[in-house]
Design brief:
Elements lengths: L1 E5 L3 H11 L6 E6 L2 H10 L4 E5 L7 H7 L7 E6 L3 H9 L4 E3 L4 H11 L7 H19 L7 E6 L2 E6 L5 E5 L2 E6 L2 E5 L3 H7 L5 E5 L2 E4 L3 E6 L5 E5 L4 E3 L5 H9 L4
Parallel strand pairs: 1-2, 1-3, 3-4, 4-5
Antiparallel strand pairs: 6-7, 8-9, 8-12, 9-10, 11-12, 13-14, 14-15
Length: about 260
Amino acid sequence: MDVVIVDDEVAGVRTLREMCATQPDLRVVGEYVDASAALAAIRESPPHLLFLDVQMEPLNGIELARALGPPILPAVVFVTAYDAYALEAFEVCAVDYLLKPFDLTRFRRTLERVRPRHTAPAEQRRALLADLFAEIEHQARQPAVRPRLLAEFCGHLHVLDADRIELLEADRNYVRIRVGADTYHARSTLIQAERALKDQPMLKVSRSCLVNVKYLTEINRTLRGDYILVLAGGATVTSSEGYRAKVKEYLGGLRV
């Protein structure tokens, strides 16, 4: 099967490319971090299988899939980090999804579901996607669900409510997530995790660190003027020089 990967995070593209390379019947013919460029390329030369990130801007994965006309619609596997309402829709419909972070075992299970559809008529694939889009729109009209992140702790995967997260720190291909005194790890980028917590009052204190200010309990200063922030769970972080003014501006707004 010819495969196209669309993900606005380079790390996401690389992960899918490496996993596709383990499967002898998959051939990656296109990789895109720009959804608009991907749409144009797919229209010109449709693949058999499309791995499509959901959370992209300005054109997201759902909009891209909608824009593909019936004659060129490939089998679609959506890739998502945290859209809870979309995950429920994917479970209902035959089109599969991959929840970030995923491993090779989960990737192979996806292919077991996708391969039989490779020979399915295009009309059947269109009907499946139509059901998926209808379910997503239905879920979007429902009361908002609490955003959640999937992360690992002590060898087990846990689903974390966004409003419990005190701290996010980038760690190469992972993000460290602090909840109380516990530190979880998620295979994600800081940008993806930040999007998941967009409804939380997150303050960026350095290029690699975000804190949830509702858990802020103590503030100190270093000799050079950077801010030392202490969180409810005991974590301590120091602002970097480049973000000193931003932190100062936020703290200034707390004064009575």
